[in-house]
Write a structure and sequence with these properties.
The protein is mostly helical. Helix content is 73%, strand content 0%.
């Protein structure tokens, strides 16, 4: 049950990555469905958290933050 819930949450909030992930399978029908799904999620506004997080990480990397160990 937890795997199903996790899959649904990722499908809803990580639809931007779903498109690039399905392109690896080289299946036109699967790619088309993933693109349509991403379009639906964008239309509802559910891609904003994903885009906000990615832009924040890009800004941090641009400022010279490279991560590192927590030691």
């Amino acid at each position: 049950l937890m795997c199903v819930i996790g899959t649904l949450v990722l499908g809803v909030f990580a639809s931007r990555d779903l498109v690039t992930w399905t392109q690896r399978f080289e299946n036109a029908r699967l790619n088309h469905f993933a693109e349509e799904w991403d379009g639906w999620m964008a239309g509802v506004g559910l891609v904003r958290p994903h885009e906000t997080l990615r832009s924040a990480v890009a800004r941090l990397v641009g400022m010279g933050w490279e991560g590192g160990s927590l030691d």
